[in-house]
Design brief:
Blueprint: H1 2-8, E1 13-16, E2 28-30, E3 33-34, H2 37-51, H3 60-75, E4 79-82, E5 100-103, H4 111-114, H5 118-125, E6 134-137, H6 142-154, E7 159-162, E8 168-175, E9 178-184, E10 189-195, H7 202-217, H8 223-230, E11 240-243, E12 247-250, H9 256-269, E13 276-280, H10 288-297, E14 300-305, H11 316-325, E15 329-332, H12 336-346, E16 352-356, H13 359-370
Length: 377
């Protein structure tokens, strides 16, 4: 959303995101277009030559981060929107001296690395704020926002825009095809803007995106730019409708906070009259009970437990045990495509099938449903 707003303002924008759903090229994009194979190959050759001069081997994510920055320099972008991989302070992306730092929210995730308290994770994320930068804070918890604001000031931020203070989401209503929001920032106001994404959580996300783009330019965005950019936004794999009758949704929710947001979206926007079914695959660093609890509370009756295509995949039998402990029926299948096919075979026209638990699972299910080529990593 931030990239679309900046592009609508006439800038050439690079984006670096993770993970990818279908091919690694998706992670590095300019003007909304993923890097093509020829340019990616050229970047990888340069990285290979660079790595030969180093004492240490870089991780895959570190190499892709450097590759993205090289590509953005080659393409002479006016702005780069860079998604942090994990945490903030020690993430590879934190080599960037960013003009704007955005922390959408803080929840317990990657606790084995970042710490097992909200405060510890907030402190790690605060590391992306640099001296002189504007920090945008979207967390809904007032105490967490104040902690993050204090940390931002300590790191030398020139301004801190807090949720419900300097930045306010005054409306976030359900609309046909998405949300209608109203946002106020220190430099601009935008009323009744359609955001073509599903889920109440996309309202605060859009608020943060508008604030980030306005902070970057230190000027209000033109209302037409905001309406055009957010009125046509698409984010594959995030509360995305793949088909109807039965309704098939895919969502990248992969931690308890994510599945809570997913469950709230199901309750508000997709409360079908039929059976709610879920295709779930989880990685080994996740608690399947905590992840499934919000879905059970939202009325998911049957879980098709599958194995994500990664060595880090949790055994589907463990997921099934967690589902049954929460009162849900469970079916165990070894692969994502088979699980989706089984759910479709069992479903009636009025049923809902939601795919979640891991981006590995969402990518595989989305590719299978849409007939896309196999994943290219």
């Amino acid at each position: 959303m931030t990239a679309a707003l900046l592009e609508g303002s006439g800038r050439r924008v690079g984006t670096f995101t993770s993970p990818d759903l279908h091919m690694v090229n998706e992670r590095i994009a300019v003007a909304g277009a993923p890097i093509d194979d020829e340019d990616l190959a050229a970047v990888l050759v340069r990285l290979q030559a660079m790595e030969a001069t180093l004492d240490a081997r870089l991780t895959r994510f570190e190499l892709l981060t450097v590759g993205a920055l090289l590509h953005f320099a080659d393409e002479a972008v006016d702005a780069a929107v860079v998604e942090v991989g994990l945490g903030g302070t020690w993430d590879a992306t934190n080599v960037i001296d960013a003009k704007v730092a955005v922390i959408t929210n803080v929840a317990l995730d990657h606790t084995e690395v970042l710490g097992d308290t909200v405060e510890a994770i907030a402190r790690d994320k605060a590391g992306i704020t640099k001296a002189g930068s504007i920090c945008v804070l979207g967390d809904p918890d007032p105490q967490t926002v104040e902690l993050q604001a204090q940390l931002a000031w300590e790191r030398g931020a020139s301004a801190v825009w807090r949720n419900d203070h300097e930045v306010v989401l005054t409306a976030n209503g359900l609309a046909l095809g998405g949300r209608v929001i109203s946002v106020h920032t220190p430099v601009g106001s935008h009323e009744d803007v359609l955001v073509t994404l599903h889920g109440r959580h996309q309202g605060p996300n859009a608020m943060c995106a508008i604030a980030a783009a306005e902070a970057f330019g230190s000027v209000a965005l033109d209302d037409d730019v905001v309406r055009t950019a957010l009125g046509g936004i698409r984010v594959p794999g995030r509360m995305e409708v793949l088909s109807t009758r039965p309704l098939v949704l895919v969502d990248g929710a992969h931690n308890p906070a994510g599945t809570a947001a997913l469950a709230a979206s199901l309750d508000e926007e997709f409360n079908v009259v039929g059976t709610k079914r879920a295709v779930i695959g989880v990685l080994t660093n996740r608690d399947p009970v905590a992840l499934l609890e919000p879905l059970a509370a939202s009325g998911v009756d049957v879980v098709y437990c599958c194995r994500a295509d990664t060595p880090r995949a949790l055994d589907p039998e463990v997921i099934a045990g967690a589902a049954r402990s929460l009162g849900m029926d469970a079916v165990v299948l070894d692969d994502v495509a088979g699980a989706l096919d089984a759910a479709r075979a069992d479903a009636d026209e009025d049923d809902l099938i939601v795919v979640a638990g891991s981006f590995y699972v969402v990518g595989a299910a989305r590719g299978h449903a849409l007939g896309l080529p196999a994943h290219r990593g």
